[in-house]
Amino acid sequence: MQFGVLGPISAWSEEGDAVRVGGPRQRCVLGALLVDLGREVTVERLIDFLWDDDPPRTARSVVQVQISHLRRAFPDMIQTTAGGYLARVDPARVDLHRFRQLTTRAQAASGSEEALALWEDALACWRGHPFSGTGSETVWYTVCQPLLEERWVALTSWAECAFSLGHYTDVVTRLTPLVREDPLRERLQYLLIASLYQSGQRASALTVFHETQQHLSEELGVDPSSEVMELHQRILKDTEAVAAPSPATVDTVPLRVEPAAPPSDPEAEAAPEFVSRNDLPRDIPDFTGREGDLKNLLDLGRKRKERAEVAVVTGPGGAGKTTLAVHAAHRLDAEFPDGQFFIDLYGYNVDQDPLTVSSALGSLLRAVGVEPDAIPESVEERSALWRAMLAGRKCLVVLDNAASFAQVSPLLPAAAGSLTVVTTRQELPGLSGVQYLSLGMLGEDASLRLFSTVLGAHRVEGEYERALAVARLCGGLPLALRIIAGRMLSRPRWTFEHVEKRLSEHQRRFRELRVDGQSVEAVFELSYQSLDIPHRNAFLTLGAMLGGSIDLYGAAVLLDRDLPESDDLLQELVSVCLLDELGVDLYRFHDLIGTYARHKALQELPGFELENARLRLADHYLDMANRAAAWLGPRAHEYDTERINASRYRSEISSVAEAISWFERHQENLASAVDFYAVSEEGEKAWKLADSLWRFYASHGETELLLSTHEKALSANRSQGNQRGSAVTLIGLGIAHCLAGRFDVSLRLLVEARDILSSLGDREGEVRAYGNLVLVYERMGRFHDALSCLWTVLEYAVSVGDRHLETLQRLNISVVYHTLGECERAARFAEEALQTSSEEEHTTTRSGALRILGEINTTRGHYDQALAQLDEGLQLAQFLGVQTREIYIHNSRAVALRESGALDSAIESHLRALELGEETEQRSAEAEVRVDLGDTYTRAHRHTEAYEAHAQGLRLARERNERHIEGRALLGIGSLPEESVPADDALAHVTAAAEIFDDLGVPEAQRAREALRRLRG
After folding, report:
1. Which residues lie closer than 8 Å to 622 by C-beta, 6 or more apart?
2. Average pLDDT of the chain?
3. CA 321, CA 327: separation in Å to the nearest integer?
């Protein structure tokens, strides 16, 4: 087997076929072990590599999962050490260590052809960026940077060797792209310049020198080294001696425009003389962020000049379009020796109208040397003269702040070798063959780097969390960030905490984002004023949206327009960068633009119009949520939303997957709609919407949203005296508190709901309350109370002929009977559930039944049958997208694997259950999984890990009052050998476990009593 870390972490078979390594985490762990081959890599170091300073609670478990996967893929390679793991592989089979062996041999060969070949073999080991796609900041700073430095050292050594042997062309070919990658490596710059000079390319050598000199001056404020300066002087003397043309004259022979009269005419006037100049505004010294966009512009400017290139930089006002264009232009000035021209077209300016095409051409023609009285009158002639003046020249033109395609098109040069950069808030449809760069907002890291660059890293690091909060309040908008940074720079006593407080007051946020004639609000106002009346009204009405995003259907409802017209309005707002398109037919405002839209809407639109729009949208969400919820499971309180003005525009929902996708897309908006109903005293609608949401929120780990929506709905219904609404909402709250492990609170809420519904004669609602009491009683270990409730619900389901509810209760009864040790009854009820399920619900029922039957067969010792059932159940759960069930089935598989003797696979399955719970933020099963994992570790004689898993499970069970799990954890700790748990502690743990099991009436009581007898001797 061969391994690679000098590029993407990879592995190959002896035949050269790629071997699948796994996901990013698994590749990162493998890479870390291979870099430190034969040495221990601690678990703590691996956790740092995977998560930097913010690991999840299950970090150790996730690392163990990755190690387990790697051991399966590469048997006998990884060894466990006291503090972590190490890999044992022949170093020659790992590209990094082969690279190091070759460089050592090359150094020993000292400048010979053999040394050159060894250096080339060493560099051939590199396939790209180390750890690409897998690393964190810790990996970058501790592993990748040192490895890349080794590569640069090897490159320099190769270049010196090749130069000394006279391979100048090879040096030029290899170093030309590399010195652009890191222009500050002066030794490589020297070798490139010297190789160009030695190979007779004096002009190119001088060009590279000037690029180096300029870059060092701009970036560091220093001159090149004395070695490079001396080389430059030698080249100049040699050039003068042979009268070689300098780079300044090679490509700047002036071209003349064809005269109006034949050359023989003495009256004929000579064409204007071209003037080369640099009109670029000052480059900002603290340019930060936009590295990817900057690279795209620089790459475009440096590519082979076979045609006139055009880049269009779009983005909302304040996004830094001009800053990027000017910064890139300064970096590219050496590529365009015939001139760099800049013109502001005033497309969005508070003081003047957009520049006319005629005026813009007049300015540009005067800039290149055309006398004012020689400038033609018509736009067509001016445009032709502009293109003729630039013909055959390498010029860079920045057309800043363009308003439209019509304004830009006549200004575009046609000369091959030219580059035009256009900045605009519009998409400029009509331009073809251009490269578009759409600027979004700066990320949090880039925003903080900007603060650090302007204010100093110490001010940011000293208040990191507050600085991050300020960056978020600025929404990553560069103009807003720079205004705040400028204010803080001139006010050294201001802290980020102080600025956060000032910005947090929405009514004064825009006042704070204004300084020295720059204003975020004014920038948005210019974009707004450029809209026509229909688009202004659409922009303002969208400011009334509920939540942070809206899809096309919701927008049609909010705007009260049909779908095609709404689509046109939205797309126009996207094209002028006032609205972001997150995905197909899904839109959002940038935070500050959204704030501006809401404030502007309150000023410009009647209050009743905004409220009616919000009510239409809330009713649309209620209608859609009710339809989506119908796909997720039975509901005791069905209702018709047509009578509440449901939207005439409905997206189709025709499957469970589509229902889940719709909820995921709108989950925050739906919470805002509940809030809107509650504030508007629409208690009836509030509880109905909250009731439609609970199953999705509960099954997808959104416990906080579940709590907040139901608390608001409950408050609204109680204030309005709505008993039914209060009771239904109490059930949802009870579910939320149960999922959060607050079983006592959950029990109280559900009992209150049951009593209210009973007093109202709502038998269906009362049965629903009983059904949820089952879940609470089961988690509390009150299994007989759970059975009593289950029988009540089952009898009701049979009496009304509700086959779905009947099937569900038979499955639940099966689970409780199995827990109580009654396997025959449990199996019978699971089989009956399969028989009573309808064809539509068969897949869902079968998934649940297979899990229960698999657990029963594990208890019976039928492991092969159990694993087959659990594997099928897992596939069905994954197909249905029921993540909670996936977690439990992974754990059930682990137990079956443990009992069958496959301990490593069992541990891996336990850890996968924990990892999935962490990923989906569904931790209701965590205590149970950890206790089962502890039992498996015990079986594998990994007693330290067993104790840790049981202790974690015990803590969680006690926090959540899960008494059955608490007893199992106590028994697991007490059953460990004396070297892990002292005899007195073991006796205390097992005694407590026996008391819990006796109280609950579960079969583990017998195991606890047997353990007590052993401990007492």
Report:
1. 641, 644, 646, 673, 685, 688, 689, 692
2. 82
3. 10
Counting DSSP H helices and E strands in the chain, the numbers are: 47, 15
Q: DSSP states of 819-840 as a string? A: HTT-HHHHHHHHHHHHHH--ST
- 3 state SS of 588: strand
Question: Whole-angstrom Cα distance, residue 577 to residue 593?
Answer: 10
For residue 287, which of 327, 332, 319 has the smallest C-alpha distance? 327
The pLDDT score that the predictor gives to residue 112 is 83
Contact assessment for residue 380 and residue 388, using Cβ atoms and an 8 Å cutoff: no
- CA 688 from centroid of its chain's CA atoms: 33
Split at pLDDT 50, 70, 90, the class of 789 is very high
3-class SS of residue 271:
coil
Tokens of 669: 């908006």
The pair of three-digit structure tokens given for residue 391, joined into one six-digit string = 């013909």
Can you say whether residue 978 is alpha, beta or left, with left for phi > 0 and alpha for psi between -120 and 50 degrees?
alpha
CA distances to 29, 67, 136, 458, 879 from 46, rounded to whole Å, are: 7, 11, 11, 29, 33
pTM of the model: 0.52
For residues 753-764, average pLDDT: 92
Residue with tokens 């690392």: 63
* Inter-CA distances, 93 with 3, 37, 41, 911, Å: 6, 11, 19, 31
CA-CA-CA-CA dihedral for 759, 765, 767, 770, to nearest 10: -80
**Max Cα distance, the chain (Å):** 127
Neighbours of 975 (CB within 10 A): 23
Residue 138: per-residue pLDDT: 82
Average pLDDT for 949-965: 89
Residue 650's pLDDT band, with cuts at 50, 70 and 90, is: low
Confidence of residue 989 (pLDDT cuts 50, 70, 90): very high
The closest of 432, 433, 444, 437 to 422, measured between CA atoms, is 437
Is beta strand 78-80 parallel, antiparallel or unpaired with respect to 84-87?
Answer: antiparallel
Tell me 86's DSSP state. Answer: E
Task: Say how far apart CA 72 and CA 68 lie, in whole Å.
Answer: 6
Residue 180 has pLDDT above 80, yes or no: no
Is the CB of residue 400 less than 8 Å from the CB of residue 322?
yes
**CA 679 – CA 691 distance, rounded (Å):** 17
Over residues 556-607, the pLDDT tens digits come to 999 998 888 888 888 878 766 678 777 778 888 876 777 778 888 888 888 8
Structure tokens at 957: 């069970």
Structure tokens at 812: 């639940």
Query: Which residue bears the tokens 């490269």?
Result: 435
- Residues 589/580, Cβ–Cβ less than 8 Å: yes
Nearest to 574 by CA among 560, 555, 561, 595: 555
pLDDT at 488 over 80: no
Q: Which pLDDT belongs to residue 615?
A: 93
Q: What is the DSSP string of 95-151?
A: HHHHHHHHHHHHHHH-SSHHHHHHHHHHHTT--SSTTTTT--HHHIIIIIHHHHHHH
Give mean pLDDT, residues 91-97: 93
Separation CA 923–CA 57 (nearest Å):
11
CA atoms of 446 and 460, how far apart (whole Å): 13
At 1017, the pLDDT band (50, 70, 90 cuts) reads low
Q: Rounded CA gap, 284 and 514, in Å?
A: 19
Going by the DSSP 8-state scheme, the letter that residue 18 receives in this structure is B
What would the two tokens of residue 497 be? 């905490």
Helix boundaries (H) for 182-278: 186-198, 202-220, 226-242, 247-250
Q: How confident is the model at residue 729 (pLDDT cuts 50, 70, 90)?
A: very high
Measure the CA–CA gap between 882 and 890, rounded to whole angstroms: 13
Amino acid identity for residue 473 in this structure: L
> At residue 408, what is the residue type?
V
